[in-house]
Design goal:
alpha+beta, two-stranded antiparallel sheet, 8 strands, globular
Length: 171
């Protein structure tokens, strides 16, 4: 593993970090948001699942809030992704898999977006949304697997509980 430094982090959204790492997408790649904890079993399910060049890992729940990265899917195919979409049936957990030509499809679109005035203000999932419906982006539903996003103090408490469970189970 190699750490990459994004010197633009103060002025660019997370698409800037993807831009810095774009050469890493030349081979099969996993992209995990730094605020998301996942179990080994969940990671294995994502690595084994999905046939699309780009796979967005999703979960479902009874209700969604404004901060959730909502997903509209049809079967395993991703149609839309975004916090503000009004029709949705899952949420992205912040883990994507790029296989085969998926990295090239993604980085070509990243290059296109970064070449605009808006590029530094865009989330990388906006690029995935632009690719939605093309058949290049699928989803992997991970219902029942352990994961936790940490955005708020209450999320930190849930993350501590989850990691304590993993330690107690010897994971």
């Amino acid at each position: 593993m190699t750490a990459l430094f994004n010197p633009f982090y103060q002025v660019a959204d997370n698409l800037g970090s993807v831009w810095i790492a774009r050469e890493r997408f030349a081979s099969d790649t996993l992209l995990l948001n730094g605020d998301t904890l996942i179990s080994e079993a969940l990671l294995g399910a994502v690595q084994a699942g999905g046939t699309a060049p780009i796979t967005v890992t999703v979960d479902r729940k009874a209700s969604y809030d404004a901060d959730d990265m909502k997903v509209l899917r049809e079967g395993d195919r991703l149609l839309r992704i975004g916090k503000a979409i009004t029709e949705y049936n899952a949420e992205s957990i912040g883990l994507l898999a790029f296989r085969g030509e998926g990295g090239r499809i993604f980085t070509d679109k990243v290059h296109e977006v970064m070449s605009t005035d808006e590029g530094v203000r865009v989330w990388y999932l906006s690029v995935i949304d632009a690719l939605g419906g093309t058949g290049s982006v699928g989803t992997c539903l991970i219902e029942g697997h352990d994961w936790q996003e940490v955005d708020y103090p209450s999320d930190l408490d849930a993350a501590r509980t989850l990691t304590a469970k993993w330690v107690a189970e010897g994971r």
